[in-house]
Fold this protein.
Amino acid sequence: MMKAARLFLDWYPREGSQLGPREIKGKVAQEGSKFWRNPRVEIVQEPLPRIGPTEVLIKVRACGICGSDVLMAAFDGEGYTRYGYIMGNGVIIGHEFSGEIVEMGRRIDEYQRRIGKEVFKAGTPVTAQCVVNCGLCEKCKEGKFDECWLTEERGFSLDGAMAEYAVADFRHIYSLEDLSEKYSGEELFLAGALIEPLAGVYKALISIAGSLNPGDNAVVIGGGPIGLAGVALLKVIGAATVILFEPSPQRREIAKAVGADYAFDPGKVNLTEVILELTKGIGAKIYFEAAGVAASIGSDIDFLFKAGEAGSKLVLMGHGEENAMICTETLISGYNVVVGSHGHSGVWRNVIRMVATGLIDPRKMITQKITLEEVPEWLTILRSNKEEGKVIVVF
Amino acid sequence: MMKAARLFLDWYPREGSQLGPREIKGKVAQEGSKFWRNPRVEIVQEPLPRIGPTEVLIKVRACGICGSDVLMAAFDGEGYTRYGYIMGNGVIIGHEFSGEIVEMGRRIDEYQRRIGKEVFKAGTPVTAQCVVNCGLCEKCKEGKFDECWLTEERGFSLDGAMAEYAVADFRHIYSLEDLSEKYSGEELFLAGALIEPLAGVYKALISIAGSLNPGDNAVVIGGGPIGLAGVALLKVIGAATVILFEPSPQRREIAKAVGADYAFDPGKVNLTEVILELTKGIGAKIYFEAAGVAASIGSDIDFLFKAGEAGSKLVLMGHGEENAMICTETLISGYNVVVGSHGHSGVWRNVIRMVATGLIDPRKMITQKITLEEVPEWLTILRSNKEEGKVIVVF
Amino acid sequence: MMKAARLFLDWYPREGSQLGPREIKGKVAQEGSKFWRNPRVEIVQEPLPRIGPTEVLIKVRACGICGSDVLMAAFDGEGYTRYGYIMGNGVIIGHEFSGEIVEMGRRIDEYQRRIGKEVFKAGTPVTAQCVVNCGLCEKCKEGKFDECWLTEERGFSLDGAMAEYAVADFRHIYSLEDLSEKYSGEELFLAGALIEPLAGVYKALISIAGSLNPGDNAVVIGGGPIGLAGVALLKVIGAATVILFEPSPQRREIAKAVGADYAFDPGKVNLTEVILELTKGIGAKIYFEAAGVAASIGSDIDFLFKAGEAGSKLVLMGHGEENAMICTETLISGYNVVVGSHGHSGVWRNVIRMVATGLIDPRKMITQKITLEEVPEWLTILRSNKEEGKVIVVF
Amino acid sequence: MMKAARLFLDWYPREGSQLGPREIKGKVAQEGSKFWRNPRVEIVQEPLPRIGPTEVLIKVRACGICGSDVLMAAFDGEGYTRYGYIMGNGVIIGHEFSGEIVEMGRRIDEYQRRIGKEVFKAGTPVTAQCVVNCGLCEKCKEGKFDECWLTEERGFSLDGAMAEYAVADFRHIYSLEDLSEKYSGEELFLAGALIEPLAGVYKALISIAGSLNPGDNAVVIGGGPIGLAGVALLKVIGAATVILFEPSPQRREIAKAVGADYAFDPGKVNLTEVILELTKGIGAKIYFEAAGVAASIGSDIDFLFKAGEAGSKLVLMGHGEENAMICTETLISGYNVVVGSHGHSGVWRNVIRMVATGLIDPRKMITQKITLEEVPEWLTILRSNKEEGKVIVVF
């Protein structure tokens, strides 16, 4: 038997909502907040899951709480969940995790014999991506797994890892063996559980936005875990100056620990003035929006695009409730770019190497280690508490 | 003596407008529409210009009327020019031109002896870029001439080519000699005068937006000269399907002649439906906005970004009066990009080779050949007439 | 019952050859020419293959003979096959093919219901990639299927399509439905069978070498099917001038038909002189080596790199028997690049759209249509005949 | 009066050497080692140079000795200089320098008034690029200054900075003002003099080779100043593991100080084994050749390309006496790339920001500070001494 944190929901489509081909009444919705009400997370006792021939059973050792977890469990005035993407009913939440393999499907051994190396075995520390792509659609055929026509998401529409044991297909797991050179015991699993948010930020800044040139400046808006991961990554790829804006003093402290050259409370300084002064008038090459406030900082970005040097990029990762106004004229006159990203496929091994060699130590983002039983409470706390770095369940 | 079309203006700063370091009272303003009133274009008789040691004197043979020329000579209810960028008083307009060298500064010969080839001599057909970069600022040092701190613009703040003779510095001219393989006489100069708008579109779509992959689809909004140049370029770089939207039947006809697979009147079809149907649901990789209507088609683009495949780009080149709302959430979920461009430096030789080898024949865009005397009249006509392709002065 | 062309081999490892983990005595070798002797292709009668739950059975309608097929069936003085890559014994050859689906595995229907569209059904015209990647290794997890640790190849180590029926997994097939707008009947299948070689060339020139800028020049060495596909692709992406070198007059004629601006017999002209003259001294941006003669043209390329403009690329796709000497000093002084490619994953839908919309018509490369029974004879003929374009089996 | 180190040469063309259009008998040769004999460097006393209207006079404060300086002053058995690129007779050597502006040409003030900021004035610390491009040729028009048709080189064909005073045109100097935040006095000028070699390495690895992805591994061959700069840059852009090979223990120590994770004596270890072990079998993404030994390590690179993961790049910057054999088959099967670079235009401000913010501290490479009078002696010493990092003249 094992304990797990499951999310239960009530099916209550908003007026006018129509079921798409990939949605199943009472089971799964593509845009959660249009269908599900009364989210509640419960710690349940249940038998261990069974694995298929290409799957592994993982004893979970650490699992971070993501902003999406908080949003799924939060609700608006009418009781609808606040999370607007794929959500299934009764699913184990949790997708930022690490653990040890305890059992492997029979086809995996056979496969590893054929390739002549045993990458995975009982005891191997691993993490897994939450994008569970179908492998069969036209996008999967092109290797663009984050654009899969039929993506499921571990911890959203499929059982996740906020539980003592989790299951993942062989093609979605990554070995954390290399981390053992710098980390051991629980520390390895703490670092390993945070590969996932780093991978999302890596995909956004490196794969999608095309990085920056070493010696360029960078600005990060928002010092939650995604913003902090952005700070760490931008500094380690050669940004001359990384400037963070974040109201929480605790988060600003972490930002400095992971690489920010400057960290300001946006309520206490003039954002555009500070940036232009610290960058000596040229502005940043990358503005990384990780707070979901693009709508309210749009005119600042517009001003910076105009005042600074040409060819800047606004990289969007934070989900906001309002759309942002982009001044198209400023893009035209300054060759500026606005681009967004959300997935994480294809970059995991590079991120693991960055952590394994110590370039990035994601444990610095952790501010709370909690138990599985405390998860429901922390999901509530985090609705309003915007001071924490990463809150992580340790098993 | 020669004839020239000069633009005269009255200095009348709007309330609150402040002079920047690069503006000169009564002579030049960076944002024309904030300072200049009562624009009038007059055909004047005057002595030929003199050339400096690194300059050439060009006998102009053809000069196109650009949308900017029309805007400079147009005015709003208070009489202010409608053009919002750099404008000088009393300047000869015209920047899309070609002609023959009739005289060369003395340092050019010396220079050509040193390089051991005579690229330019009396009689050489040439065109010139209108970006007259300073060559000394930090951006010029980096070869990014379009981002020059002190750019002047031929035909805007410096004398242009809507005249029987024009002057250009050696470092801003390009030989049209290669065009003589496909074109002769006036035809060569007609094609040569239209290198400039092609160069702007090449810079936007290839250098700044990063092109598309052959076999991707493309959509062009607006069938004026810039949109038509976009159609021609996109087709010749391997777009599978190029779809144009443009109200004018004449322009739609030209679009088909230069490469559009389809051309629709946006008032008569549902833009998003047509695009999704013709692209079999995947949408376009590039949406090229060349009509200045980003504000009004924003929601269509948003819909297409969501319905089509991920990784699309909205490339902005058309100046609009309103800002466009970009749905940031759609950029995040689909890895989509919005980017703008306006310059043309660095791409001229490639564009000339494309015209010289017949890949693009810009003459197909010409709908009116006029005389210099007719310029003032056509500048008025073109304020409301949105049916023409390119109107070009032939000398 | 069906007819098929199977390749039989004798296991006879050369002295010193050691079996790797992925090789199986008497069954499959990674470097064929080190293990296999006495290749013979026989037309056999046998029962139709059975399909698994995610596979389709395809009635083959056309299948091209590739240079690799010729090499597998050819042998050196000691009787060893001339093909140096993966080869299995008793395998049906053929990997450039098209056909119609006649039966689908049961899981495919279920899958298509879930995605809400029926891309494939009985009667759908299809082709399939020959790279049969494992889907499980670290490279497959990154979407880099051509670098799969455990790749099998249809027609090399797995049964191919030189047979009346062939089997392919759902994740390796591509619909040719779009071709029906321009082609019908046999013509559709002829065009469809040649998607595979086009995909290899697309991968090399676009995905790996990074294309060229429109208006750049290109040179192709070798006018066999790969070189001809290179000519067609380079012209359609905006190369100003495409120059082919190929001894066979027939192939030169085809080259002109598919887009070459010039086609020369390299035995009759001075390659470097011709290129420098036709490109007016600047040389080509891409030199596409499709003849396997890099070793013998190395010094010409070196000369061209030096004489022409900087930043040129030598793109290697032709397998040669000797290594080429690259003058590293010329790369340093001219920022030149040498790069190679061989796979074809990830680009199929774009290539199909290019054929479907008529940008490229690969049927122009076909010089012989033959029957399955004639395959063994033509494999022998093609060892010495270097005059044909594509020889294709029609069913 | 000032002291300067001038290089005197005897004009003695090797048999068969022909003068090109840009060479002047007895004055300047494009390939020095084919024309010049008996190089001798002398410390001369002479009047201060005069500046033109767009030039500045710089009081030199530090000037590094580059490998090219050593080669120019070295000679082969027949007395010919060992340097094979542009060389003029009687020129002041030195091109890695920094100093303070002491006088400015009259047009600079006028220019700075127009842009509204005073970037340069008497006392401003500066460095200058050695590429003195013509500004007029077709490549300069495209902003590709390193490919200028008529490049002169400061310290090679024009007077350099191994002197108490040097002259540079306004468009070739860069302010070192930003360095004053981290460095002061002599330290600022030591750091500033080494911007030039860093810029060359930045151009090669970032601009030309296209960088690596953060988390990739990198190998550097050769721990002279160029190799050391490569180590520092690669580490600071996110290479997971940087491995250096260099025989000198002193240089290996410096390598570790500037960022190498490992530094080996290539005579004492098996290069390929070490690399594969430390990279866990995947090899490096970038192999940076900075020792001029591509010819002798060609087969190692070939082995590594084959054994490691696909898509690796060999980046060449070291000038060797022999050409290297590149196994084209390995490039084809592994999508590998060979590319070279030598210039440094366009990247200076980014490099200066990297030094100013402390990302790279080039002073760590300095092993000897000498006086101008010691230059001739050190040029001799450095022919055989391959132990030093950077030897730098302090004024």
